[in-house]
Each structure stands twice: as structure tokens, then as C-alpha cells.
Specification:
By secondary structure, this protein is an all-alpha fold. Helices cover 75% and strands 0% of the residues. Helix 1 runs parallel beside helix 3 (54-66), helix 4 runs antiparallel to helix 5 and helix 5 packs antiparallel against helix 6. The longest helix is centred in the last third of the chain and has 29 residues, at 123-151.
Length: 162
């Protein structure tokens, strides 16, 4: 089999699986949207720390998940864009702890603005609430989970794309 074709198929399959997992975790858990949100699927964003090609599946998964957002098309566009920005920043960060902070910072700022704009909620409070939820999921939980994953060379090898 052609190596390029095999690599493309692997990218497609892994991206689809991650997109489906992200979307399902987000849409099935009731606390994934609005102000105080704990979007458990966001822990998956740290996969980009292992291999930047997870950006595709995670961005698409976020877009699918945001189709179910009570905030409508604005969240589909700007919520997905916030995740894409955070993913690009994670991919460029060499320190895991610092990488875990990007989703909280970016989503806090952007989703906070969406909540302010659409629901007339106080911006600073909304940004802080979103930041807090992201911080709990990605930094407090994700950091320790991925610290453990990164110690397992076999698992990291399986998670990386060929």
C-alpha cells in the first residue's frame, strides 16, 4: 500500500474518531454550554500537544458540538474559531502546563464576549466563568492526565500519527 495513502487514511480515521468523541461528549453532557460550563471534551485539546494534526478532528468536533449550542450560529462560528486558536497555540507551546492554559484564556475571552453580546451578561463575569470551567477541565484534570500519558512511550507512539 502507498505510504501517502496510508497516512492520509490514518489522518482521516483518527480525525473522524476524535471529532465524534468531542462532539458526543459535549452534546451529551448538559453543562457544556453557556456561562458556567465544564466542557469535558476540552481535555482532548491536549492531544495537539502530542501531535498537531489532531487540530483537524478537534476543530471539526467542536463545530459539530456547537451546532447544538443554545447560542446558535454565532457560537458555531466564533466558538469553533476560539477552539481553533487555542489548538494552534497549544501546538506551538513546548511546556505542557503552559499549553493547558490556552483553552481557558482564549475561550474565556471569546466565549465571554459571545455571552455578553448575545445574552447581555456581564463580560468580566462571563469570561471568568468560562475561564474557570476550562481551567478545571484542561489544566487541573488534563495536565495530570497528559503528564501520565506522556510518560508512557508506547501510548504516545500509538497516539502520534505515522
Amino acid at each position: 500500500m502507498n505510504t501517502n495513502k496510508s497516512n492520509y487514511q490514518e489522518l482521516l480515521v483518527k480525525s473522524a474518531l476524535i471529532a465524534a468523541l468531542y462532539a458526543a461528549l459535549t452534546m451529551l453532557l448538559p453543562f457544556s454550554y453557556l456561562g458556567v460550563q465544564f466542557r469535558v471534551a476540552e481535555v482532548l485539546t491536549l492531544l495537539v500537544f502530542i501531535d498537531r494534526r489532531y487540530v483537524y478532528g478537534l476543530t471539526f468536533g467542536c463545530l459539530i458540538a456547537n451546532l447544538g449550542s443554545p447560542l446558535g450560529p454565532i457560537d458555531v462560528i466564533f466558538g469553533t474559531l476560539a477552539t481553533l486558536i487555542a489548538l494552534q497555540l497549544i501546538a506551538r507551546t513546548k511546556n505542557l502546563l503552559l499549553a493547558t492554559l490556552w483553552p481557558a484564556i482564549v475561550n474565556g475571552l471569546i466565549i465571554g464576549a459571545i455571552l455578553y453580546y448575545l445574552l447581555d451578561l456581564p463580560y468580566l463575569l462571563s469570561a471568568a466563568q468560562v475561564f474557570f470551567g476550562e481551567f478545571v477541565v484542561v489544566t487541573l484534570i488534563g495536565y495530570f492526565l497528559f503528564k501520565r500519558i506522556l510518560r508512557d512511550e508506547k501510548l504516545v507512539s500509538m497516539l502520534k500519527f505515522s
